[in-house]
């Protein structure tokens, strides 16, 4: 392979994608693949959605970027749309999920500071989480594999087992500021968190004067069949991080908060050069316009049940390779018995793109607007991949 000028930080598969259309992508040599990797749950409406393209083109002809020293009407309009649809009163716009989590951490600590508790800086997080790749979000994630070689770990995070209410209670101390959790751990293996546990965390936060932060970077903007996953549990956070699907593929993140939680974020406490740029705002509004249309989320839920039933039948036929299904909406995990990398590669050989996660799980991430025919085709290609693996396994060694 030719020497690349790029950092060697990605183990890239031998595919060069040239263009996309809906649920499909095309390589530079003309190969057509069904994309159920979704840019890691980013491409909520697939590739080159006409309404997103139109919004981006229209805004690009007017204004790309302007400093946040000035009023940006596009931010106000999208902020209103987000706050009207959620628990939040305030929004900070940034460029990525990691930045959104950084903002959430600062918001929680600053809240405690202006509330007369400057000692409250620690945040409780959970084993199996993934919150980003900056030094602070890596520390919040707590995965030793990601932390190795980067020097001292950023302080202020206490990790406990997922789902263990007593461990959370034991971890709360005089320096605790907040609890940070993903309603479903995507990178961690599509691990669902029970509604009761989320309600327990809400109660603990209220009892101890802590803030509850939901990381909805992967679960948000319709991915689970609700606009945000917290709706399934009937629990509202104080702060929520959003990215991935909200930009439909355009780099875009946001930190949402109640007015009370955000009261410490006054002029000069935080900022972003490119956050909230007019291009991102235009695309974000277009995404929400589609996702919030009457019947759209109901259709996501209906198609989720449909494809899960289809997948269950396939999985039952291949118990030595795949075991069960987990997740909500179009955030679907398939737990593998065989190495997940082998299953992902076998799917790729059938021109189906999926992606691995923790706990030997393969993520099946169709666009939210994928048709039943495309979902059927995805299941058919998965079945073909598993059949090939089964045949290879049964073949005697030469």
Give an overview of the whole structure.
The chain is α/β, with parallel strands linked by helices and 398 residues long. It contains 13 helices and 17 strands. The strands form 4 sheets. A 7-stranded mixed β-sheet has the order 4-12-11-10-7-5-6, with helices on both faces. The protein has a 4-stranded mixed β-sheet with strand order 1-2-3-15. The chain has a 4-stranded antiparallel β-sheet with strand order 13-14-17-16, covered by helices on one side. A hairpin with a 3-residue loop joins strand 16 and strand 17 (361-364). The longest helix has 23 residues, at 372-394. The radius of gyration is 21 Å and the shape is globular. The mean pLDDT is 96.
Major sheet strand order:
4-12-11-10-7-5-6
Helix content: 25-40%
- Give start-end ranges of low-pLDDT stretches: none
Q: DSSP helix count?
A: 13
List keywords for this structure.
398 residues, alpha/beta, seven-stranded mixed sheet, 13 helices, globular
Helices and strands, with pairings:
Elements: E1 17-21, E2 24-27, E3 32-35, H1 38-41, H2 50-60, H3 73-85, E4 90-94, H4 97-114, E5 122-126, H5 135-141, H6 144-147, E6 157-160, H7 165-171, E7 176-181, E8 184-185, E9 191-192, H8 195-208, E10 211-215, H9 230-233, E11 239-242, E12 253-257, H10 278-291, H11 296-316, E13 322-328, E14 331-336, H12 340-349, E15 352-353, E16 355-357, E17 361-364, H13 372-394
Parallel strand pairs: 3-15, 5-6, 5-7, 7-10, 10-11
Antiparallel strand pairs: 1-2, 2-3, 4-12, 8-9, 11-12, 13-14, 14-17, 16-17
């Amino acid at each position: 392979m030719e020497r690349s000028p790029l950092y060697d930080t990605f183990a890239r598969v031998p595919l060069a994608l040239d263009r996309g259309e809906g649920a499909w992508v095309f390589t530079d040599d003309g190969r057509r693949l069904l994309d159920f990797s979704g840019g890691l749950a980013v491409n909520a409406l697939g590739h080159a959605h006409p309404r997103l393209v139109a919004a981006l083109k229209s805004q690009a002809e007017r204004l790309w970027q302007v400093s946040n020293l000035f009023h940006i009407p596009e931010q106000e309009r999208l902020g209103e749309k987000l706050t009207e649809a959620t628990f939040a009163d305030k929004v900070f716009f940034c460029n990525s999920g990691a930045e959104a989590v950084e903002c959430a951490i600062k918001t929680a600590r600053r809240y405690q500071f202006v509330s007369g508790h400057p000692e409250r800086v620690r945040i409780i997080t959970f084993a199996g989480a993934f919150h980003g790749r900056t030094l602070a979000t890596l520390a919040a994630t707590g995965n030793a594999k990601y932390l190795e070689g980067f020097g001292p770990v950023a302080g202020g995070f206490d990790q406990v087992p997922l789902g263990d209410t007593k461990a959370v209670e034991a971890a709360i101390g005089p320096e605790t500021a907040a609890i940070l959790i993903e309603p479903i751990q995507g990178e961690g293996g599509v691990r669902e968190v029970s509604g009761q546990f989320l309600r327990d965390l809400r109660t603990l936060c209220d009892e101890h004067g802590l803030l509850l932060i939901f990381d909805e970077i992967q679960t948000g903007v319709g991915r689970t069949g609700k606009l945000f996953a917290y709706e399934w549990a009937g629990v509202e956070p104080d702060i929520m991080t959003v990215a991935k699907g909200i930009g439909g593929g355009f780099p875009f993140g946001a930190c949402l908060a109640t007015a009370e939680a955000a009261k410490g974020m006054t002029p000069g406490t935080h900022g972003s050069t490119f956050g909230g740029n007019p291009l991102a705002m235009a695309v974000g509004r277009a995404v929400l316009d589609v996702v919030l249309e009457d019947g759209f989320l109901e259709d996501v839920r209906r198609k989720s049940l449909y494809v899960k039933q289809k997948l269950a039948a396939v999985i039952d036929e291949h118990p030595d390779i795949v075991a069960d299904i987990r997740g909500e909406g179009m955030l679907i995990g398939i737990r593998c018995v065989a190495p997940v990398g082998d299953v992902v590669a076998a799917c790729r050989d059938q021109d189906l793109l999926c992606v691995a996660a923790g706990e030997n799980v393969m993520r099946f991430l169709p666009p939210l607007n994928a048709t039943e025919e495309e979902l059927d085709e995805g299941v058919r290609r998965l079945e073909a991949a598993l059949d090939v693996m089964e045949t290879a396994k049964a073949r005697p060694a030469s």
